[in-house]
Amino acid sequence: MSFFNSIGRSMSRAPRSTKRSPTPTSATFSPTESNYNNNSVPSSPVASPQTKPLYLCSPFVEAALVKGNFKTIVMLPKYVDIMEWVAVNIYDFYTNLNEFYGVLAECCTQQSCPTMSAGSSLNYTWINQDRKSVNLSAATYVDYVMSWIQTLLDDESVFPTKSGQDFAPSFPATVKHVYRQLLRVFAHLYHAHYHQILHLRSEPHFNSLFAHFLAFGREYELLEMKDIRGSSSAPVGIGALWEKWRDMGILEG
Ligand SMILES: [Zn+2]
């Protein structure tokens, strides 16, 4: 099943969101692009490169609410429009991740996370309106991402909710952008806040949410492997988690 092949090749570029984010200072930033930056060292309480991150260790890596492979959960139900299916799942991923972040937000501060870290040598940067790559604190970055997505979800021309309204041809490209940014929020939470997730005993729930997100993203070609793995000089921490779950049979190869 190819989401993108099913609707043609004409929408390879996402439209830039023209709506302003509810965050007062975020209007100067665009969440549509950002780059890897391995110049700075994350100061958040993370494992050193020599230490295996807790999310890769037993029993945490196996903790899940949903046992087995996610293939059947992500399959398009009979008689459901593929756009509708993608839209409703993105809404659910966003809502669930937003709730998790809301609980962890008090731990994600300017002091703990001065950058949007997602690996021992990886910090996501933001491209501002002057096309400059800037480092933001993780809290600010996540705030911009979530506000941007909320604005899109509220926009009937992007996520139509009334019968008879069609999805725009740009919808697949837009949701790909959304997916990429949501992946970064997951990547930061695993990298910088997994010990707090464990403290809350939420790792089965969080792992299942993320495995579902990965399986869905791969099924409908919303996620690129390079975004999951990162580059060799700045790997994404969760790239190893993806591989582990694939080897365990939770995710497709
Ligand atoms: Zn943080």
UniProtKB/TrEMBL annotation:
Bias type Low complexity, positions: 21-45
InterPro entries: MOB_kinase_act_fam (IPR005301), MOB_kinase_act_sf (IPR036703)
Region (Disordered): 1-45
Keywords: Metal-binding, Zinc
Keyword Metal-binding appears in the UniProt entry: yes
Binding site for Zn(2+): C108, C113, H188, H193
Signal peptide: none
The protein, known as: Mob1/phocein
